[in-house]
Amino acid sequence: MIFTHATVLTMNDRREIIDDGAVVVSGDRIEAVGKTADLLAGHSDHDEIDLRGHIVLPGLVNTHVHTAQCMLRGVSEGKRLGDFSEWLFGRIFPLQGSYTEEDGLASASLCVLEMIKSGTTGFVECLLAEQYGFDGIAEMCVESGIRAALGKIAMDVSPEKRDELGWHMGMWQTRESSIEGTIAAHDRWDGAGDGRLQVWFGCRSAEPAGNPTLYDEVSEVARERDMGITIHLAEFPPDNDYAREQGYRSHIEFAHGHGLLGPRTVLAHCTIADDADHRLLAATGTTVSHNPGNNAAAAWPAAPVGDMLAAGVNVAMGCDGAPSNANSDLLRDLRIACHIARGRAGSRLGLGSETVLEMATLNGARALGIDDQVGSIEAGKKADFITIDTDAPHLQPVWNPVATVVFAAQGGDVDTVVIDGRIVMQGRKVLTMDEAAILDDVRGRFHAVAERAGVEGIESEWPIT
Length: 465
Ligand SMILES: [Zn+2]
What we know:
single chain; alpha/beta; Urease, subunit C, domain 1; TIM Barrel; nine-stranded mixed β-sheet; eight-stranded parallel β-sheet; globular; binds zinc ion
């Protein structure tokens, strides 16, 4: 295939943008990138896809996703809960804990469909519970064509602690079963879908309810098996209080003390990490997943992204869960990242559109451990790219294609998605998933879940007549 007449944001070392550019794809690889006129001549035998008016850029990587929460879009509004524990244990856990395997798959399918339709070609799932049916979700991911690192839950919360907190039984597993289940899932699924699927440890947060020796064991197994680890870390001020009780200066140093930091680890949030923490994260090659939309919605402090990047930390982008952030549309959150960072810096010279696009592509690829394969549009790399059709009133005129992508484009403007050389979406039609069936399925399920969970206060504050 040869994709022609597009503006190509290559994201190569020189960050070249090719006007009237073309991308030649052979199998799962990019064979050539250059000017349309030059490449058409040598590849006249290829099927041509004319992308006049489109911007082509590397596929986006969403490094912090709760697929099970996609079906809980909107449940944090209605009667809003100010207290985090009340929100988690009184609303979110009872809903998720009441899922059947079919519910888990329906929610994950909705999430993957939404991500593909908004230009995400790879993602990190942070907390996949046993009861959602790991095999069904892994199979759905493989069939959808997306790249996924599925973090399966590892946890160690005692039955006493569980009951004291009112932790929903559906969200609880023993330490042994959670670790053994993750290892078994790794044996079955890691590398499936021509290497598109990875199985990681999705550790529950380091907080007073958990036993910190879990992390020593998980990090040892992960190193032996070269598995990724993801965990929510340094999310809000009580996390540092907890770390100090454990004898550490900070939550990040606590994580380091238990072996969690390293190039195969993605830490979600790190909003309260300081300069010393940033130096440690950079030295260990640890990725931070920055989730500005979710942090703002949940009233967490704004993460010091500029400081992290200046210290050399690999900061990637994430959307987090639908109960707080509503959408898994990473394009929208790129703009939020810039807005919040500029507000924090008190200057328009805060985070730029070029930097945030690097975070969502190159840095995301590094988070997945495949930056030698994807993250830019260059000959020899895997063909993972998306196109944005700029033939729309909110996208014209295009002065600077990077600014158009980051500040003006929305997920709904993504026209074509190519992953591993395969066209997964074209003309906004997803070719690998049955969109109508997925939406119908979700519509029929959510009320039953809420009823089973006995959760109230989700409804509109205003009367619906
Ligand atoms: Zn999260």
